[in-house]
TrEMBL record:
Coarse class of the protein's main subcellular location: membrane
Native species: Amycolatopsis cynarae
InterPro entries assigned: TMEM64, VTT_dom
Name of the protein in question: TVP38/TMEM64 family membrane protein
VTT domain ranges (all copies): 58-175
Organism lineage: Bacteria, Bacillati, Actinomycetota, Actinomycetes, Pseudonocardiales
Pfam family, one: VTT_dom
Keyword Nucleotide-binding: no
Family as reported in the entry's similarity comment: Belongs to the TVP38/TMEM64 family.
Length: 241
């Protein structure tokens, strides 16, 4: 596929995703409970809707709550995590297929290269940490990882691990449907955000340490060459005397 064609398709998909996020009438979990009768068919329908719709930047919370209401804790968690993995993989794959060539020329820019290196070198820990932070949007992070040098397996494993605590909390605390967000869920979100932030701090510090180690290792041969040169000069002076 030509680069210009990829650009057109990528922009069209992005526009469609954004439009869907703002215009689609997403039903409330209470409405879904009324429509659905439970059972395997309900689980399959919820899995399909969750997996496809959240590829666009549509919040996953409503689907997690619906999973808890319609399927119960165990089945709801299983369906929600499976759909999360599928949705994350689809967003990542689309971004890599259509957007990779569009940013490859910009990877040498310092800011882009820094983000790319942090995510790519951070591996599972970096993705897990970001997924734990509730304010980091699910779909855009998948797009970002897809167009950068993040490898497929660390991304998918990190997505599942980082999304699991929040998904479990929302599915189990289905009482949030009766009104505002319950204090227990807010406490969970704060705890997940703290753990994710600590993980990213570790990733950033590890990257900085690796960079310093590489720089030191690079200077060692230069220092050794300088020492050898000075020794050679001293030996030559002595021999001339």
């Amino acid at each position: 596929m030509a680069r210009r064609t990829k650009l057109i398709v990528a922009l069209a998909l992005l526009a469609a995703f954004v439009a869907a996020a703002f215009t689609l009438p997403i039903p409330s979990p209470a409405q879904l409970r009324t429509w659905a009768g439970g059972g395997p068919l309900t689980a399959l329908l919820l899995l399909g809707a969750y997996s496809v719709l959240t590829v666009a930047p549509i919040p996953r919370t409503v689907f997690n709550l619906a999973a808890g209401l319609l399927l119960g804790d165990a089945a709801g968690i299983a369906v929600a995590i499976t759909a999360t993995a599928i949705s994350g993989a689809l967003g990542f794959g689309l971004a890599r297929l259509l957007g990779r060539d569009l940013v490859s020329r910009h990877l040498q820019r310092r800011s882009v290269r820094t983000v790319n290196n942090r995510l790519a070198d951070g591996g599972v820990l970096a993705i897990t940490s970001l997924r734990l932070i509730p304010v980091v949007p699910f779909a855009p992070l998948g797009y970002c990882c897809g167009i950068l040098d993040v490898r497929w397996r660390p991304y998918l494993v990190g997505t599942v691990l980082g999304s699991l605590p929040g998904t479990v909390a929302v599915v189990v605390l289905g009482d949030a449907l009766t009104g505002g967000t319950p204090p227990g869920l807010l406490a969970c979100y704060l705890a997940f955000a703290l753990v994710g932030t600590l993980g990213m701090i570790k990733v950033v510090r590890g990257a900085a340490y690796d960079g310093a180690t590489i720089a030191t290792a690079t200077l060692v041969p230069v220092r050794e060459e300088g020492i050898r040169a000075r020794s050679s000069q001293e030996t030559q002076v002595v021999s001339e005397e």
